[in-house]
Amino acid sequence: MNHNFVFLQSNEREKNMEPAKNPEEFYKKLKAQLQDTSIWPTEYLYKFIVPTKPSKIEQIEVIFDNMGAVINTRLSKKGKYTSLSINVRMKNPDAVIEIYKQIGREVEGVISL
Domains plus CATH for the chain? Predict the structure, then answer.
């Protein structure tokens, strides 16, 4: 089962998707949802948007290096942003959440979907 979660830095956040206000509570809810909706290990689909700079894309690719991930990229219409869809087998919800946290710490300007 594929999961998509929106981590946006705007005033129009969905009610239950507000990691900036209380990230630990957000990740606690995400973990419960992942546990309830999947049998682990499972394939997980990450989606990210970054400014179109090779260094930003490479930062994300390096995080998934040696994990057997399938990474697809797509340039936005005007070329300002690149979206990355990453399909990878994850062992449990904690591993999924750790990747989100790592990318949030290491990749400036990333939007996680």
Answer: 23-112 (3.30.70.260)
